Amino acid sequence: MKLIRKIALFMAVAVGFASCHGVEDDSVGVTLEASALTIVADGQQSVTFEVLYGASVVSAEAEIYLTSHPDRGFSGTSFSTTEAGEYIFQAIYRDQSSNQVKITATEPVGPHESRFERHICVMDLTGTWCTFCPDGMTKLNFYVQKKEWKDITHILAIHDNTQGDDPMGLPLSSKIMADYGNYGYPMFVTDLRDSGSLTNDVGNIVPSFNRSLDEFPAQCDVKFTSSLEGRNLSVDVDLFAELAGSYAVSVFLVEDNIVAPQKDGSITHQEYNHKHVVRALLNNNYKGDSLGTLAAEQEGSKTYTYTLPEEWKVEDMTIVVLAITPDGYVNNVTAGVLGGSADYKYLAE
Questions:
Q1: Centroid of chain to Cα 59
Q2: What is the overall mean pLDDT for the chain?
Q3: For the domain that residue 144 is a member of, what is the CATH number?
Q4: Do 25 and 169 fall within a single domain?
Q5: pTM listed for this prediction
């Protein structure tokens, strides 16, 4: 029966395949979604498919076909290739066909000479209740203040409130910790890629910084303009892609010089000066709001609005924007004051 359905699907697609900026979606209730629409044909980058029946995920029960290449075998929900070209997929569930999804696989490129300066993001997962966290931040600052990192590294201190007594705590902290190895507090995450303990694995920070620069050079950059009327903030973000791909952005509000208690070993500092504190994430997902698939030399944009609580000190706050590439890693970072702007970071001629 599966073979008969497969043959019928190929015949139906063949009739309308030649017209093709996209075939009409005549399915009822079945939707095929892809994690990206562009990948590099290097055999490593991949796209993951999800099949929905209404609002229900039915990927495990559905059948996904590579309809544009009927002679090429395909199974599962993940696709990669070493051959550049266009690949069209369609799913069947309960004898109903989904929409078609076109994946473009581009030729791998040689070493890319970027016009932009590469900046790095390091997250510090911390908490006021955490007795080792002040020492973790001291160690992190020791490396970040070195001249090779000082001007290109941005710290995001994301506080955890699972103990119930951190006024700066965000659920985001425990979410990131669960996603990146659960080393315990304090923990670092570099460019949403490498992670480790700031107690036991602190020596891994510098290798993670070097890996960002050596293995993941800049292929894009971000800039923003912002306006502040009273406590109402508006932020316009632009990302410029030097290489084609599916990009995303994350926007954080960060405050320095927050005076609050902090446990430190066996003592508690009642007036500890907390720095780099993430107050808010303006998008729904810390891994970024999609800008869609951008062609090389194309720009994508997003706008965000937020109302600042009265107790936040605007003069001590910055906007930090992460540029995220199709592999899910941070590829560049920019920062600037609320109500101000930050331009693209062009390398000196």
A1: 24
A2: 89
A3: 2.60.40.10
A4: no
A5: 0.72
